[in-house]
Amino acid sequence: MALISLRDITLAFGGPALFNGINLQIEPGDRLCLMGRNGSGKSTLLKLISGDIPPESGDVQRQQGLKVAALTQDVPQDLTGNVFDVVASGMGSAAAVLAEYHHVSHQLTHDCSDKLLAKLENLQKELEENDGWNLHQEVERVLSRLELDAEEEFTALSGGTKRRVLLARALISNPDILILDEPTNHLDIDTILWLEEFLAKNVRTVLFVTHDRAFARRLANRVAELDRGRIYAFSCGYDEFVERREALLEAEITRQALFDKKLAQEEVWVRQGIKARRTRNEGRVRALKKLREESRQRRERQGTVKIQVQVADRSGALVAEVNGVSFGYADKTIVKNFSTMIMRGDRIGIIGPNGSGKTTLLRLLLGELEPQQGQLKPGTRREVIYFDQLREQLDLDKSVQENVGEGNDTLIINGQSRHIIGYLQDFLFSPERARSPVSILSGGERNRLLLAKLFTKPSNILVMDEPTNDLDAETLELLEDLLMEYPGTLLLVSHDREFINNVVSSTLVLGGDGSVREFVGGYDDWLSQAALESAAVAPALQKPAPEKGKPQKEKTRKLSFKDERELEALPELIAAREKEQEQLHSRLADPDFYKSAGAEVVAVNARLVELEQQLEAAFLRWDELESLKG
């Protein structure tokens, strides 16, 4: 039996129908990913399903006693209390007792009065009767994993940390349906991986909206897309959905072309006059009127963003030279003895845990911060544009047009004059939307607006700090294409693994302890190289056998989450190394190779020795991790 059934739901808010008679069922075990362009109504549908808003017409049927928990994009303004209270509030009736026990326990650390001790004893009994200890441990476990301080005041937290608190509240409520609206926003990659694993293993039914394709690929077993007031559901994973959607769009284009051709032919016929007015042709005239009405009501698919970057004159060949740089704050080292060289045309990704200093590293590389130790030599002729993740370059009280035009009605884009309204339409802002204040825009619209504002300026260095938040999949892919073709230098901070894989040529990984390591390639390449390093180090770390007569208790260890990811990556790594090994052996077996190779023969043989060592280490590590599975 379906947990929730939507039947013929209509909702318009006084304008074009956001939902035009949509139907959807959510069954137990569904991990349903809701897709759609920005503004198609995804967040509104989530609110309707969770019961926050009613439909204008249609019926929402819920299974009796259904428990729904939701993580919204927006943080509630009226939420107060410390982090523990907010998270525990997701547990329903036991929350008040749990919060009170936590407060009394905290007070006892500096006040051991008999009154408090008696109160604690009473609360303990009440918790025992309501399975409160398990609830308390669950709250503390989730707080620990999301690195949240139970005693911090919720209202004093940053926007990203507030989102993590609300995520924790939703996770511990153990709902029948968990609803998540862009859950990966403001989470670092490690936390996203943990969330994927947690949801896959512990949450049976989840409905989620995400721009993170890797997240959708890992979790979704159904996909539904909102498009022009209709919803199309697919019982498949994300990759198959993409293929099936493309086929449907191609069929729609063909069907509409045939329709338009027929309509044009009938319009030509009716204008012939007397022939159309004969009695025997009245049916054809009525059919033409029906075609006209169908054409009038047809909602065209929203246009595609037209993103252009204005490229400035080339920067110097050297963009930045970093030698032994260290920087930190009073209580935290951000980078320690870091060296690198950034050349013109490099596309560098920067990843690391939240709070590790990714934005600080960007500011160091741009020369906005002075190193405390070491030297940073900036390059010449640098023209930088900076996409900041907090969108602080946007004035919320001004209109879309005022933010981009800065008082001008025209812009110079790639040497040509453009009216600002036409330019904003390239970024899917209608003339009416262009006159709206930024404060009413959705997160995705604000991201598009910041892109529009930044790209009015020429650049040869693009710095992008979390540009993918809230963008729909199509705009995300267009931005990817643009960045891959950008002839200048790119510095990119992102938690979107697929975006990093597709765009960057090397990756800087911050460890959170001041270490910054550089790897060739994107996120998956970093995983592969890190796994090989672990495999090579593992044999050296093996402890010698205990001396005779000194038996030691053997400790059993299970695979950690990190171990599981490493084990998944190893077969692909080994296959790649074996393929390279085979190619090198083929080169050495070719007599023509020795005619012109010269010193390359030595290099190839040296690489073969290195590959043999790496493969041996990888196989040892694979055996070790496999043994832990049991």
Q: Can you characterise this structure?
A:
- With 630 residues, the chain is of the alpha/beta class.
- Among the domains are: 78-157, no CATH class; 249-297; 318-524, 3-Layer(aba) Sandwich (Rossmann fold); 527-541 and 556-629, Helix Hairpins (Orthogonal Bundle).
- The protein is 45% helix and 19% strand.
- A hairpin with a 2-residue loop joins strand 10 and strand 11 (332-343).
- Helix 19 crosses helix 20.
- The mean pLDDT is 81.
Low-confidence stretches: none
> How many helical stretches?
22
Strand content: 15-25%
Strand order of the largest sheet: 5-6-7-3-8-9
| C-alpha termini separation | 37 Å
CATH superfamily of the domain at 318-524: P-loop containing nucleotide triphosphate hydrolases
Largest sheet: 6 strands, mixed
Summary of the model, kept short:
This protein is α/β, with parallel strands linked by helices and 630 residues long. The protein is 45% helix and 19% strand. It has a six-stranded mixed sheet, sandwiched between helices. A six-stranded mixed sheet has the order 14-17-18-12-19-20, sandwiched between helices. A three-stranded antiparallel sheet has the order 2-1-4, with no helix packed on it.
Which helices and strands occur, and which strands form pairs?
Elements: E1 4-11, E2 19-26, E3 31-36, H1 42-50, E4 57-62, E5 68-71, H2 83-88, H3 95-107, H4 114-129, H5 132-145, H6 159-171, E6 177-181, H7 189-202, E7 206-209, H8 213-219, E8 222-227, E9 230-234, H9 238-270, H10 274-277, H11 282-297, E10 318-329, E11 332-343, E12 347-351, H12 358-365, E13 373-378, E14 384-387, H13 400-405, E15 410-413, E16 416-419, H14 420-425, H15 431-434, H16 443-454, E17 461-465, H17 473-485, E18 489-493, H18 497-503, E19 506-510, E20 516-520, H19 523-541, H20 561-588, H21 593-596, H22 600-629
Helix pairs in contact: 3-4, 9-11, 19-20, 19-22, 20-22
